[in-house]
Specification:
The structure is a homodimer of 277-residue chains.
Chain A (H helix, E strand, L loop, with lengths): L4 E7 L3 H13 L2 E7 L3 H9 L5 E3 L4 H5 L7 E4 L6 H11 L4 E4 L5 H8 L7 E4 L20 E5 L6 H13 L3 E4 L2 H25 L10 H7 L6 H10 L1 H23 L3 H12 L2
Helix pairs in contact in A: 7-10, 10-11
């Protein structure tokens, strides 16, 4: 695999960020992987896991490192509501960098950054884990997963192409979508399931825990994701999530009606419709 | 392990029934495992997997096989709403057998059978799989799992003790509970999660499927259980399940309010309360 970027900058080296670094190094996609994080301990773990080559706690190092090249790529892997601010600061420090992210929501981020004078293409690899932190990084996290790019009217064609090549090099399939379409899909396939899993998990008391089987563990696994990360996602996509909570509530109401009426065929239809998916 | 029963009769040799057979044979708990199922093909698979030694499609073979012994145990592994009828037929054919089951609900079964003149002690191993059929049987399915026994006032002490020894021999921890308490716990830890997973899965269309990550797969895995089995469970425990659906709905309402108000601390509290469980 030939180099796609000279310097890859990862801002936020948690599980996702350090997995990007590890995958980039595995596939030889960049010359140097620079990890930036406000937390020194997180950087140390990422270094030990060899997910990054160089580390820094401040973005201003980017002015120095990338002063004379123009094919650097900065991938922002912070909670979604800080991505716009981080992108603006990166652009202020070094205007030559292509900036992208891995955020689970895209509408607000792309709308904000479209209006700025910077090179940004939004991205979301649909891959992750209920775990968090660079200690759980995985070079194969993106292998055979879908990565959605959400370019806007202001995105340059060559930047979209390079980002597509970047994610394909990490084993991902790449799909281009409107930010609005992305957020609608993800509200249903990711944010609603997370909300539901969290609601389920929150109901269980200490005395009930022994009665939870492996099915319960599966169903609620995602609820152990970092609350700070998911608060951002929920709020950033709150209108779509609210709409999905309505649709989901209606579905449960239909089950309630069937149970109240002891309507066996209706209960079976409810269960069959799930199984066919 | 010394023999706990001479003949073990399993009625319904699906995944659970054939796993009981396989575990019994692994641990040497019975002399002979007799599998009874109306489906010849299911019996053939159970035989090939060596989960049972002898098979029959009708219960009347029990008259013959157990005529002169009185320590036989029949474990009913059929959908919950057929357990009472099967128990009555077993008792009619052979009054010497101790009868038990593996049903996920206990109140109605135990209440009905308490009034009959037969030796019944209800049981529920909290173990299973989203898969179905004897091809997926597992000798270790009950290892380190909890099995709840729900004896009633009419249960004999020696029968309870023997059934406890039986499940412990298969690697289970055994706990005695009131049927009502069992069904209340399971409504929350199993039946509600199943309903919720099914509702989630049923919402996903073909076009949205590529956007489902591993988290979605985990959350909805249990929804692929057999609809006929789960219709029975839902209807048999419908009042407790309806109560849990209310509690769950209230929890989701609290999230909706937080989202409508863009109340970040409230969203975080919602997510934190799930994570602490």
């Amino acid at each position: 695999m030939s180099k796609i970027v000279s310097d890859l900058i990862i801002v936020g080296v948690g599980l996702l960020g350090s997995s990007v670094g590890l995958a980039v190094k595995k596939h030889g996609v960049a010359d140097t992987v620079i990890g930036i994080d406000r937390c020194r301990e997180t950087l140390d773990i990422a270094l030990r896991r060899e997910a990054v080559d160089v580390v820094a706690t401040e973005l201003d190092v980017l002015a120095e490192i990338n002063a004379e090249i123009n094919d650097g790529l900065a991938v922002i892997c912070t909670p979604v509501r800080s991505i716009v601010g981080v992108a603006e600061r990166i652009a202020a420090v070094n205007g030559n960098l292509l900036i992208s992210d891995v955020g689970s929501t895209k509408v607000n981020i792309c709308r904000e950054l479209e209006q700025r004078d910077l090179r940004f293409v939004g991205a979301h690899p649909i891959a992750g884990s209920e775990k968090s932190g660079p200690e759980f990084c995985d070079a194969d996290l993106f292998q055979d997963r879908l990565t959605v790019l959400t370019p806007t009217a202001s995105s340059r064609a060559e930047d979209i192409e390079r980002l597509q090549l970047f994610w394909e090099s990490l084993g991902s399939q790449v799909l281009l979508l409107e930010p609005q379409q992305h957020d609608a899909f993800l509200a249903k396939t990711s944010h609603l399931p997370h909300a539901v899993a969290a609601a389920l998990a929150s109901l269980i008391t200490e005395v009930e825990r022994p009665f939870c089987g492996t099915g319960f563990a599966d169903t609620t696994r995602i609820a152990s994701g970092l609350p700070v990360v998911w608060t951002d996602i929920f709020l950033d996509n709150r209108l779509q999530l609210l709409a999905m909570l309505e649709v989901f509530g209606d579905r449960l109401e239909s089950l309630k009606t069937a149970l109240e009426d002891s309507d066996a065929p209706a209960v079976t239809r409810f269960l069959e419709s799930a199984r066919q998916r």
